[in-house]
Amino acid sequence: MNNSKIVFFTRNKPDDTLAQYLRIKKLMSLFEVAFNQEVVLFNAYDEKLSHTKLVLKSKKKIKDFLTSINYEISMIVIDILDPASIKLLNKYALKRNIKIYIDIVEYADPKEKKFGYLSPSLYLNHKIIKKSVKKNMTVIAISTFFKNFYYKKGIKTIVIPNLINEEDYSSYVDKELKEKVHFIFAGYPQKKDALDISMQAMMKLNKKYPNSFSFQIAGINEEEFFAKYKYLTKYRREIDSFAAFHGCVKREAIKSLYYKSDFSIIMRDPSLVVCQSGFPTKFTESLAFARPVIANITSDIDNYLTDKQNGYVVEKFSKDALLKALETAIEQKNNRKEMFANAYQTAKVFFSLDKYIERLQGEDD
Question: How far apart are CA 174 and CA 341, in angstroms?
């Protein structure tokens, strides 16, 4: 490694349960391997500051960092920052002829925001996507949605989806099968995740196949769930007969829940631009844990999900379409071992670091 360093800039909360923070760490590993240089993370996050104050103070923190370092920066990689900080870093890069990348992962949707188009976070997100990304930058896009978006603007874009951990979960393929089929939903449910749609499908499934399955939910506890989906409260006793709520859990607990499960559930509202532009971390995570995915098609999922091979494709965004896929999973439960192996292989082929080294180096766009 030479004396110059690649520096990642973010103001993301350093929390391994957060998808975007995990993505930063994996991208850092990718850059280190691809360019054989030390990678440094500068994080402007301060837990003592409100989100608004954090945005306002990030630029000064970055400026102070840039004036204090005693090494050369060979590349700059921007993660979650505000437009003013991005402008500062781009000016710094242009003056010194430094290669600059920006990671773009989500196009915020007003339907997901409490104040709609008046939401400050939506305003910042749209300003960054539309105004802050300049032609001298290279976009690291989480999906082909953004590749197509920036292609029209003449901005070089590399598609890098969420990458898997380097840990080996091949042992998950050989899990001893139980008679019951176990489904899992992992992550805190936003509006885009439509957990209530999944629950309604599970309720219908329970009528046809009682005591034949369980639904494990990690990321939200039972009280939070029924507070979020009040209209389902009257079905609480029925839901409790097949569903288990684990709340927000640590990474080791997530591993254990995936190991005990057979299929993960991902239902996303295709009418939301956030679902078409982003790419679910839980999709790559499930495959890495050798667990097939039951999902409707949004974003680039159809590039990786093959019906009845590494999961089941839900034909429409509806509880009845999901029910059909769930029924098939139960009726074909003897195929689980083969599907575990296919899921794990998909993760290794499409979401490991090795696949993206040459692409990042510019040899294969």
Answer: 9
Q: Is residue 363 predicted with pLDDT exceeding 60?
A: no
Rounded Cα–Cα distance for residues 177 and 333 (Å):
9
List own/partner pairs for 232-240 with CB under 8 A and 24 or more apart.
232/196, 232/199, 232/200, 235/203, 238/203, 238/206, 239/199, 239/202, 239/203
pLDDT in tens, 103-149: 999 999 988 888 788 888 899 999 999 999 999 999 999 999 999 99
* Cα–Cα distance measured from residue 75 to residue 39, given in angstroms and rounded to the nearest whole number: 9
**Checking DSSP bridges between strand 73-78 and strand 5-10, what pairing results, if any?**
parallel
Q: What is the pLDDT of residue 2?
A: 63
Residue spans of beta strands (DSSP E) within 166-207: 181-186
Tokens of 256: 């254990």
Tell the residue number behind the tokens 């009257």, with chain if given.
Answer: 234
Reference 250, options 196, 186, 193; nearest CA is 186
Which residues are CB-neighbours of 294 under 8 A, at least 6 positions away?
183, 263, 264, 265, 266, 311, 312, 314, 322, 325, 326, 329
Q: Output the CA–CA distances (angstroms, integers) from residue 248 to 22, 72, 87, 188, 253, in the order listed.
A: 16, 41, 36, 8, 10
pLDDT tens-digit series, residues 178-213: 999 999 999 999 999 999 999 999 999 999 999 999
